[in-house]
């Protein structure tokens, strides 16, 4: 809920900090927390950070869901990363 609140205020650095805080408090991050933080970044124009979070999801073995792909494609679109979007479609 706190990360989602950051989305409404465009506070993507705070959303990233909340993810760090979760890890330091041994709280489990899941697709919902990653998706919320990535969406917050993407909506604020920080698409590089959004995509970094999505790649981190993969590295920690959190499966992407439909919402993850929506955020990924939107980030690719805003960042002009069309080749990466095509790679995602091929997966």
Structure annotation, total helices: 6
Strand content: under 5%
Coarse morphology: globular
Spans of at least 5 consecutive residues with low confidence: none
Could you tell me the radius of gyration in angstroms? Answer: 12 Å
Judged by helices, strands and strand pairing, the structural class is: mainly alpha
Terminal CA distance: 31 Å
Q: Quick one: biggest sheet?
A: none
H/E element sequence: HHHHHH
Mean pLDDT: 89
- How much helix, percentage-wise, in residues? over 70%
Strand tally is: 0
Can you walk through the features of this model?
The protein is an all-alpha fold. The protein is 77% helix and 0% strand. The chain has helices spanning 2-9, 12-24, 31-43, 47-59, 66-79, 82-90. Helix 3 (31-43) packs antiparallel against helix 4 and helix 4 packs antiparallel against helix 5. The longest helix has 14 residues, at 66-79. The radius of gyration is 12 Å and the shape is globular.
Briefly summarize what is shown.
With 91 residues, the protein is mostly helical. It is 77% helix and 0% strand.
Summarize this structure as a short list of keywords or feature phrases.
about 90 residues; mainly alpha; single chain
